[in-house]
Design brief:
The chain has about 160 residues and is of the alpha+beta class. The chain contains eight helices and five strands. Strand 1, helix 1 (about 15-20) and strand 2 (about 30-35) form a beta-alpha-beta unit. The longest helix has 13 residues, at about 80-90.
Length: about 160
């Protein structure tokens, strides 16, 4: 079992990573991926901002880069934090892009769950995890904006 939670959205060139990643697989290997879709309210990890306003402001990470960077500077975020948030913006991944990357590299889904309320939020914010409504979870693009986390259990179908 390989466990990658809150990792894939920080890796540049996720498609290449998925291809390279297969060299670590054995016949019965499975991999767990948990990640926040980029377009979700806090997909830009803005909760790490020093500004209490920005840390609670949903969706502002979706602004075009110059405007996003300008807002971060306006709220006096340190240069190192701005750099980190811009790197996250560059590597953020949607559910569709994630699914295309694993399908293109010979992985198959053993199980998947989309969450309206991320299970991490129970520890962080004392909010109970909630699975996403099936209608939203099955609607491409919309689910990226309303799903705070996707959990996927994958196997390499060429290794089974």
């Amino acid at each position: 079992m390989i466990f990658l939670r809150d990792v894939i959205e920080h890796i540049p060139d996720q498609e290449y990573f998925m291809e390279y990643f297969k060299c670590f697989f054995h016949k019965k290997s499975v991999v767990f991926f948990g990640f926040p879709p980029w377009q979700n309210p806090f997909g830009g990890h803005q909760q790490i901002c020093n500004s209490r306003i920005l840390s609670k402001m949903p969706y502002f990470h979706l602004l075009p880069v110059p405007l996003y960077k300008g807002v971060l500077k306006l709220f006096k975020e340190p240069a190192s934090r701005i750099k980190e948030l811009l790197e996250i913006k560059e590597t953020g991944i949607s559910i569709e892009r994630f699914e295309a990357a694993f399908k293109n590299n010979g992985f198959e889904v053993l199980d998947k769950t989309h969450f309206l309320v991320n299970p991490n939020y129970e520890v962080k914010f004392k909010l109970k995890p909630r699975k996403q409504l099936q209608l939203i979870a099955s609607t491409p693009w919309l689910r990226n904006y309303l799903t705070t986390c996707g959990y996927y259990l994958l196997s390499n179908k060429n290794q089974n």
